């Protein structure tokens, strides 16, 4: 059975916010045009696969600012999570397992709540 870790609440909150920020950034990048700067469209079928892009109007200043804000928050949270004092308490051989457990803590918690809900009459 896998080891369970008693993660501090601030570390769990930081990891959860990191998940949220990354999801928000990914959703924003999917909505934005493919090029930050305005560029003409192109079609290239000389490579191993055909590549086509429509003309890009580029990103507005507000869109660029929003992407930068999310990327900066992602960097802050990444540093917070990876440099948290909790990791000093974890044996070197267990750090990868502990890190993976933290990344999936919300899924594990949801499964436990779901199982408890089913077992309750």
Question: How is this structure best described in words?
Answer:
The protein is mostly helical and 121 residues long. The protein has four helices and two strands. It has a two-stranded antiparallel sheet with strand order 1-2. A hairpin with a 6-residue loop joins strand 1 (42-44) and strand 2 (51-53). Helix 1 runs antiparallel to helix 2. The longest helix has 23 residues, at 9-31. The two termini are 28 Å apart. The model has no long low-confidence stretch (mean pLDDT 91).
Keywords:
121 residues; mainly alpha; two-stranded antiparallel ribbon; 4 helices; 2 strands; elongated
- Could you tell me the number of beta strands? 2
Beta fraction: under 5%
- The number of distinct helices, counting runs of at least 4 residues, comes to 4
Radius of gyration (CA) equals: 21 Å
- Compute the separation of the termini in Å: 28 Å
Estimated helix fraction: 55-70%
User: SSE order in H/E notation?
Assistant: HEEHHH
- Major sheet details: 2 strands, antiparallel
3D shape: elongated
Strand order of the largest sheet: 1-2
Q: If you average the pLDDT, what whole number results?
A: 91
Q: Which class do the helix and strand fractions yield?
A: mainly alpha
Pick out the low-confidence regions: none
